[in-house]
């Protein structure tokens, strides 16, 4: 069964699939959807174990398959965990990914020691979540220095409360970065255009974005949003769209000659 997704815009327009980060839901993209939907068919997906897809308990590979089943042939925009799902889909089903925007994403941890340490840390988080409940966990999660520049938005917090303890704990255990086999060596296989977006203040993921771009087989570039952190698309939605909309339009211009060649 496909993942849950909210659809916006003209069904006949080019498709863009939005994939959120850990503890978010499809509704985290709400500030960006109206502008995107003027020119595109937008599918905002609930990732596995999140929101209305809470009963889909998968690892990253199967989650990517579900994402492709849900979104089909489209441009994909993924943030953090959603970026890792989109990257897996691009490698597993490249024919479905016309172009991809990865926001604060990574190709994985390089060594088994690093992955083992991350799995252990995520297991601790999962146990704390199951012990203390959703609200206490979300409060601690959003206090992470990674989100220091993220506005304290009561509506966004309420959206995260659509998740379940069981779903998020499963996501930590099955789709955390420690479970991800490093994908860096597979990047040269990718021929679709990529835009790697990071916040200026997110130094760790700026390094990772440049590494993704350097290894990418097709055209790839890094774009930095000024005065923003890890969740740069939430902190600066208009600046994010100013970067992403032209990138998506490039795909429409590229596709139009072929489309016009058919009667």
Overview of this protein structure:
It is a single chain. This protein has 263 residues and is α/β, with parallel strands linked by helices. Helix content is 45%, strand content 15%. Strands 1-3-2-4-5-6-7 form a 7-stranded mixed beta sheet, with helices on both faces. Helix 3 (81-92) links the parallel strand 4 (74-79) and strand 5. Helix 2 (60-71) packs across helix 3 and helix 4 (112-132) packs across helix 5 (134-142).
Question: Descriptors for this entry?
Answer:
263 residues, alpha/beta
Number of distinct helices: 10
Proportion of residues in helical segments: 40-55%
Helix and strand content put the structural class at: alpha/beta
Low-pLDDT ranges? 256-263
Biggest β-sheet: count, sense, barrel?
7 strands, mixed
Average pLDDT, rounded to a whole number, is 94
Rg over CA atoms: 17 Å
**What is the end-to-end distance?**
35 Å
Q: Please give the number of β-strands.
A: 7
The arrangement of helices and strands along the chain is EEHEHEHEHHHHEHEHH
Strand adjacency order, main sheet: 1-3-2-4-5-6-7
Please state the overall shape, judged from the principal axes of the Cα atoms: globular
Strand content: 5-15%
Short account of what is shown:
This protein has 263 residues and is α/β, with parallel strands linked by helices. The protein has helices at 33-37, 60-71, 81-92, 112-132, 134-142, 154-160, 165-175, 203-215, 232-235, 237-260; strands at 5-8, 15-19, 41-45, 74-79, 97-103, 194-199, 220-225.
SSE inventory with pairings:
Layout: E1 5-8, E2 15-19, H1 33-37, E3 41-45, H2 60-71, E4 74-79, H3 81-92, E5 97-103, H4 112-132, H5 134-142, H6 154-160, H7 165-175, E6 194-199, H8 203-215, E7 220-225, H9 232-235, H10 237-260
